[in-house]
Amino acid sequence: VKVRVPLDGRAYDVVIRSGALRDLPRLASAPRGTRVAVIGDRRLMGSLRRLARDFTARGHPTTTIAVAAEERLKSLREIEPLYGKLLRAGLDRHATIVGLGGGTIGDAVGFLAATYLRGVRFVSVPSTLLADVDSAIGGKTALNHALGKNLIGLFAQPDLVVVDPALLRGLDRRDRISGLGEIVKYALIADPALYRLLERNWRRLVALEEPLCTRTIGRCVAIKAAIVAADERERTGLRAQLNFGHTVAHALENVAGYGLLRHGEAVIVGMRAAVALSTARGHLAPGLAQRLETYLASLPVPDHWQRYSANRIVAATRHDKKRGAHGVRFVLLDRIGHTVGDDGVSPEMLRAVLRRVGFRR
Ligand SMILES: NC(=O)c1ccc[n+]([C@@H]2O[C@H](COP(=O)([O-])OP(=O)(O)OC[C@H]3O[C@@H](n4cnc5c(N)ncnc54)[C@H](O)[C@@H]3O)[C@@H](O)[C@H]2O)c1
Ligand SMILES: [Zn+2]
Predict the structure, then answer these.
(1) Ligand 2 centroid vs 243 CA: distance in angstroms?
(2) For residues 91 and 73, is the Cβ–Cβ distance under 8 A?
(3) Any idea what the Cα angle at residue 3 is, between residues 216 and 70, rounded to 5°?
(4) CA dist., res. 264 & res. 343, Å (int)
(5) How many other C-beta atoms are found inside a 10 Å radius of the C-beta of residue 268?
(6) Nearest atom of ligand 1 to the alpha carbon of 107
(7) Which H or E run contains 196?
(8) φ and ψ of 325, to 5 deg
(9) Taking the C-alpha atoms of 240, 245, 248 and 253 in order, what is their torsion angle to the nearest 10 degrees?
């Protein structure tokens, strides 16, 4: 499967194929003789080494840098030494940087590639289900600041994204469910047929059955690519659809810290709140909301988030980075596959809904 991300002037391809990693040096088509740096999650050392060997065999002097994929990596302090490594390895502005790992690596190495010598070629190779369908697509790079997450960064589209679902086999179950959370999000905001498929087959997807897995990733990438192409820099509000379930997810991550739940797990909890709000605000029929709630509640997410009080979550939504002039704008559903923006959710209504989905009083 190949999806083209159609940005004016800088369109690029997302290649999605089991085994595509072995083909990467050819797909990357870096100019002959230019230098390459392969920077990736040290848990994927075997793949990093193989990739470096393949680039070297094609005539590219290649440097390999393995880093720990921890949220801490996403900081100016942690990436500063990497610039020195690239400079000492002699990477010039014709060089290519390959980032291999999950969203942590993608955010940090994407930033590095976009700022090293004012930007060099960047090939992104996501290795988690979440990164395959979400963070690797859309061109957001991000580092954290002591005052908050993802506050430093730039929009920088990669030159190529290569998704190899075979890489996901080592991924643990919670990280797979985390990716599933974002996949369900795409279905609910844009694709009723995908939603029906997930209701029946999410276990087979999480087990990485083919061709289901490749096809589903391809569909999500196409949905995200279309939304990003329509609103690359979050100006028209179209890209905001991607925040379905995220207002409460971000609030929960803020209150509980980032270790409690994987991002996509928090999104599953956040989507339950968004579905209940959609009905409370009169957008979504109660029967349909019940069907969605039953499905979302059946997905295996650890339930220790229930110890946080609805009040604290409500307070945390007020700090949401994406809040607008009129406060927090919720992305809600009026049917499966279609969203509405709504500024009219009162704190009282949100509190009541959060209690209903399981937050403490
Ligand atoms: N830029 C964006 O648009 C965007 C969107 C969503 C999330 N993000 C960011 O992505 C990050 C989370 O991404 P993530 O969930 O992919 O996390 P991650 O990169 O931290 O990976 C999760 C865990 O899986 C391990 N891992 C990665 N690939 C593996 C593989 N193939 N086999 C076995 N283990 C593997 C990692 O070592 C890590 O322990 C957050 O920092 C978040 O802010 C960015
Ligand atoms: Zn998300």
Answers:
(1) 7
(2) no
(3) 70
(4) 24
(5) 24
(6) 1
(7) helix 192-206
(8) -60, -35
(9) -100
Neighbouring C-alpha atoms within 13 Å toward the C-beta of 74? 22
Structure confidence by residue, pLDDT tens digits, 278-316: 999 999 999 999 999 999 999 999 999 999 999 999 999
- Concerning whether 243 is annotated as a catalytic residue, the answer is yes
Residues with CB under 6 A from ligand 1: 41, 43-44, 69, 71, 74, 101-105, 107, 127-128, 130-131, 134-135, 138, 140, 142, 150, 167-168, 170-171, 175, 178, 262-263
Distance CA 29, CA 52 (A): 15
The pLDDT tens digits for 87-130 are 999 999 999 999 999 999 999 999 999 999 999 999 999 999 99
Please tell me the distance from the alpha carbon of residue 197 to that of residue 177, in angstroms, as a whole number. Answer: 16
User: How many CA within 13 A on the CB side of residue 120?
Assistant: 23
Of 74, 121, 243, 253, the active-site residue reads 243
The two structure tokens encoding residue 316: 């945390």
End-to-end CA distance of the chain: 47
Rg (CA), the chain: 20
Token pair recorded at residue 286: 């109660």
Structural contact between residues 107 and 122, judged by C-beta atoms closer than 8 angstroms? no
